[in-house]
Amino acid sequence: MRTALVIAPQWIGDAVMTQPLLGLLAQRGERIDVAALPWVAPVYRAMPEVAQVIDLPFAHGRLDWTARRELGRAWRGRYTTAYVLPNSIKSALLPWFAGIPRRVGYHGEGRWLLLNRRLPSPPGRPPMVPFYAQLAEERDVDLSQLRPRLQIDAARIDDAIRAAGLLGRGRYRVFAPGAEYGPSKCWPAEHYLALARRLHAVDGLPVALLGSGKEAALIDRMAADSGGACIPLAGRTSLDAAMAIIAGAHAVVSNDSGLMHVAAAFDRPQVAVFGSTSPHHTPPLNPAARVLWLKDELKLDCAPCFERTCRLGHYRCLTEVTPARVESALGEVEAAAAAWIPA
Length: 343
Description:
- The chain is α/β, with parallel strands linked by helices.
- It has two domains: 3-145, Glycogen Phosphorylase B (Rossmann fold, 3-Layer(aba) Sandwich); 154-337, Glycogen Phosphorylase B (Rossmann fold, 3-Layer(aba) Sandwich), CATH 3.40.50.
- The chain has 13 helices and twelve strands.
- It has a six-stranded parallel sheet with strand order 3-2-1-4-5-6. A six-stranded parallel sheet has the order 9-8-7-10-11-12, sandwiched between helices.
- Helix 9 links the parallel strand 8 and strand 9 (230-232).
- The radius of gyration is 20 Å and the shape is globular.
């Protein structure tokens, strides 16, 4: 059996979007270990194709040359192929130190020595699922039809729901109002609040507010102002638990974020609000998803800018997506999904 080491990307959304690649590798008989930073490792534990997840001990943004060399040398003789998914030089060091015979990745930052099977880096910002899946070099597969899928045991989902103080699967919605990238991806908090109050008044389902510890203060304020509609969970749940809570949700509303891709990979009815980024680049690949992006409607020549903050200062791509519009879209996907997605 061929044994493969996959060097994972560092962001949650990117990690989710690599699953179709791992599926292709598993289908042709490769045993897959994934080396991932701790904050994305839970994503790979929800992929049945992965035999082992190795938590990398490196700090974000640091080269850690000595530690990478020592770890790589400890892996010598273990793997026949490495797939290096990030485009950085440092991400290709581990397979090189490990002496893995076949080291595959995009040309990236000029990795002539570190990789010996280099695909040309595509121009612009291509759709990310085919971008990763292309590394499998399966020429008979239509990469445009692939979409990520994650799996978590029902018992783990129920345990996470219970620990969060929620009532049960399908008896709450999830909002993910944050985005690690910056405010140009964040639908306004007051819009999320208006939507939460309205939905709660209609059917009584609570809204679980998920996010990272960095977003806990914002989410706590939102919950305090929600009139009992929201349950704040940011900073109170691990990524494993947050993924399980999303898997059991009635529906999800989010920005373009890692949790958006998690919801899509669990087939949850969802509405995704896009601002500075593009749904052509990182769409939620989910038949039960609806994307709201006002570039064409508002004739926003500045979009997508892919900037962390709005250089024009108006954030119209986000502020003009009204709560009523998101409520309407959410109602449509919930109604359409009810017939075929189990609660």
